[in-house]
Task: inverse folding
């Protein structure tokens, strides 16, 4: 209930802000963690420092921004990128999955599912400009896109690394990975929790193109121009044909998936693994 009210409030505030900024000349709207520019090809920038982790608030604002773009029939495509230097997204927020209660885990997971379904089944053309590290849920965001351009910086890695955290990528993460890189590569990468360098990601097909870092946005825009030249109706029907079965697989078992996640993440052993992983992240800083 509380979340639904927050969501209504955000939508309202978002549209007011959108109008105000439009008067200033720049066609854009924003909430705290997501900035959307609608001048030229629409660009959605995640800005949840330090690492663009997908907290509940960030997921909600992301979903609302997408909803607004979907409702604007003049917007046919969106470039998804990050405003945080060196980070595309650190994925799901570990602090939403650690040390909370089952009701919180269920609420969080419902919102993760909702964002995924909205992104994965979007009628718009989605191109990701991956300008930084993109582990786990960050990779998931990129995989939802129709085309992925990654910055050629060996410090940036991408992949579904859940098994390194002692957790298991849900079946719908896995389905999308298999759809993108094939069963054998996905099986190996999921078991090992592989984080691919840009060159490896290109080779295996996690991303479609790797370009010098200063060209990632211009390349994403030129890709968008090419995709925009395709008639919407045929492209959308084709996308739906390719993705429907994967999305339906979750839709038909959303509740069960929430229950599974909640009971899995609540286990002492899993909480212990997350604790150790969080400690490791802290220690890395020295
Ligand atoms: C059935 C269960 C399935 C659940 C599915 C889960 C999918 C997921 O997405 S799980 C999340 C997986 N994410 C990761 O493994 C990424 C972990 N983070 C990193 O590897 C690094 O932080 C980075 C490469 C993204 C960035 O490195 P950098 O050196 O720039 O920054 P750090 O000093 O490591 O981090 C800064 C700060 O942010 C905290 N943090 C990092 N990632 C997360 C996160 N995913 N959730 C919450 N918080 C995160 C990190 O602990 C630091 O915090 P402090 O400043 O307080 O120490």
Result:
């Amino acid at each position: 209930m509380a979340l639904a009210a927050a969501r209504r409030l955000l939508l309202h505030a978002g549209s007011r802000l959108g109008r105000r900024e439009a008067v200033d000349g720049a066609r854009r709207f924003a909430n705290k963690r997501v900035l959307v520019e609608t001048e030229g090809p629409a660009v959605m920038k995640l800005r949840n420092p330090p690492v663009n982790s997908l907290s509940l608030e960030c997921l909600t604002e992301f979903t609302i921004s997408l909803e607004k773009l979907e409702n604007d029939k003049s917007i046919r495509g969106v470039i998804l990128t990050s405003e945080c230097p060196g980070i595309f997204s650190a994925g799901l927020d570990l602090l939403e999955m650690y040390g909370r209660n089952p009701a919180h885990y269920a609420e969080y997971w419902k919102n993760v599912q909702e964002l995924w379904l909205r992104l994965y089944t979007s009628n718009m053309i989605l191109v990701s400009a991956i300008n930084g590290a993109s582990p786990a849920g960050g990779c998931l965001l990129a995989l939802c896109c129709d085309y992925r351009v990654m910055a050629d910086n060996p410090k940036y890695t991408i992949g579904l690394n859940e098994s390194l955290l002692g957790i298991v990528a849900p079946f719908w993460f896995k389905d999308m990975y298999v759809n993108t890189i094939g069963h054998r590569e996905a099986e190996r990468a999921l078991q090992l929790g592989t984080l691919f360098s840009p060159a490896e990601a290109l080779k295996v097909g996690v991303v479609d193109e790797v370009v010098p870092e200063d060209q990632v946005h211009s390349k994403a825009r030129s890709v968008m121009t090419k995709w925009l030249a395709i008639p919407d109706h045929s492209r959308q029907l084709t996308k739906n044909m390719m993705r429907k079965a994967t999305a339906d697989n979750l839709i038909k078992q959303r509740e069960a998936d929430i229950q599974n996640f909640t009971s899995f993440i609540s286990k002492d052993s899993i909480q212990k693994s997350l604790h150790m992983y969080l400690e490791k992240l802290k220690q890395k800083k020295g």
